Amino acid sequence: MNRKLFLASTMSSALVACSPIGTALNNNAEFHKLLSAPQGLDHAIIGTRGLAREYRDADVMRDFPLTGLPTPTDSSYAELLASHFAGYALIVDGAVANPQKFSLDRLAKMQRVAQITRHDCVEGWSAVGKWAGVRLRDVLAVVRPLPTARFAIFHCMDRDDQGTPYYESLDMHEAMHPQALLATSLNDAPLTADHGAPVRLKVPTQLGYKSAKWVARIEFAATFASLYGGKGGYWEDQGYEWYAGI
Ligand SMILES: Nc1nc2c(c(=O)[nH]1)N[C@H]1C(S)=C(S)[C@@H](COP(=O)(O)O)O[C@H]1N2
Ligand SMILES: [Mo]
Question: Ligand 1 centroid to 1 CA: how many Å?
């Protein structure tokens, strides 16, 4: 199955897939077949070495859509928001030589990059946005993952109505991708709470659910098997394919 066909069929059969009501799709055999069949092939042929296309300013969609779990409303997030994230520090730990915390000030002192790329959500929408922030690989260069680290696991601040937190993971190759960004701004404005403030992942080479919002912690580990449902991500635990390359 070629890439376009894979994408088109995934999109058309998954119209509500990353909203909570879309979990019905997990019982849909056809949907599973589409998501699982091309995995090995897809990774081998397309890989993540290639760059996602970058667009021009004129292509940017000003009202970037919103989806996914609701913006956190708990008191700790409310306090962070009220203080403009003064108390926020991104924890980066696990299998690393040099575990660190990154305040927003510290992130702001690192090399800033911007990218205008297309976000593809399995719900069937795409949107071009201008994301700016710090390359994930620059954070890796500071913390120095150990040889045992095979995955970067992103722990988020939101939870579903069962209390299960959102999380995601990338392999080390994807984490080193030059377009994998820890974004702090969207369309030339600071990231809003709804879009994942203060820091979200933006990975334009992967389907939208990989681009974790409200990231509190990045953990490096040899495996994600013992976390939550064991499949490496919130939606993966409900049947989505772990590899979401486009
Ligand atoms: N923490 C968290 N990150 C998340 C989600 C979520 O529910 N929680 N939804 C994902 C999905 S499915 C998509 S398409 C994008 C949507 O990002 P946006 O709401 O900023 O458009 O965020 C992704 N990251
Ligand atoms: Mo999505």
Answer: 27
Question: Tell me, what's the pLDDT at 17?
Answer: 64
Q: Locate the ligand 1 atom nearest the alpha carbon of residue 68 and give its number.
A: 7
Between CA 210 and CA 170 the distance in angstroms is 8
* pTM exceeds 0.90 for this model: no
Q: Could you give all domains of the chain from N- to C-terminal order, each with its CATH number?
A: 3-238 (3.90.420.10)
From ligand 2's centre to the CA of 8, what distance in Å?
Answer: 15
Question: Which residues have beta carbons under 5 A from ligand 2 (an ion)?
Answer: 18, 121, 208-209
Q: What is the per-residue pLDDT for 109?
A: 98
**pLDDT digits 0-9 by tens, 72-105:** 999 999 999 999 999 999 999 999 999 999 999 9
- Is residue 65 lining ligand 1, measured as CB closer than 6 Å? yes
List, for residues 152-164, the tens digit of each pLDDT value.
999 999 999 999 9
Full DSSP string of 3-37: HHHHHHHHHHT-TTTTSGGGGGGGG-HHHHHHHHT
**Ligand 2 mean position to 6 CA, how many Å?**
16
From the list 117, 129, 121, 127, the residue with the least C-alpha distance to 191 is 129
Going by alpha carbons, the residue nearest to atom 6 of ligand 1 is 68
Does residue 118 sit in helix, strand or coil?
strand
Any atom of ligand 1 within 6 Å of the Cβ of 213: yes
